Amino acid sequence: MLGRIVAATLVVGGAMTSSAALAQNDPAAAVAAGVITGAAIATGVIVPYEHREPLHEYVVHENRPSYRYDDEVVVGRELRSGPYESYPVPERYGVPDHHYTIINGRVVVFHPHTRRVIHVYD
Q1: Distance CA 112, CA 62 (A)
Q2: Where do the domains of the chain lie?
Q3: Fewest CB within 10 angstroms: 14, 31, 54, 83, which?
Q4: Number of helical (H) and strand (E) elements in the chain, helices listed first
């Protein structure tokens, strides 16, 4: 348990340091980084940076259908149940026990039980 707390502290500290560095060059980028960091902390899980592009390529290769969804889809919010199909994310992409779907032409990664969104690709 202590190991997890230390790891989480290091991740948050690193993200905060990165946000501070961004703020010196681009205030808008710093705000965006802070929002993404805050949402990731709130959900407790993020798609690891090094797996984001390979996961996106995997999903595109799978050629799944896109579903229309009227609500806004953002990190940290829960998807309401609806007429969308979800598919498991292979464990090699660093987010075990999560699913993805295609909503309004965008790949959305979420937890299948809580439906909380952890990543949205543009």
Answers
A1: 19
A2: 2-43, 49-120
A3: 83
A4: 3, 4
> Is the full-model pTM beyond 0.70?
no
Instruction: Label residue 100 exposed, middle or buried (CB < 10 Å: 0-12, 13-18, 19+).
Output: buried
Which amino acid, 59?
V
Phi, then psi, of 4 in degrees rounded to 5: -65, -40
β partners of residue 101? 108
**SS3 label, residue 87:** strand
pLDDT 10s digits, 9-51: 444 445 444 444 444 565 555 444 444 444 444 446 899 999 9
Residue type, 8: A
Closest CA to 107 of 72, 77, 73, 71: 73
* β-bridge mates for residue 100, sequence order: 87, 109
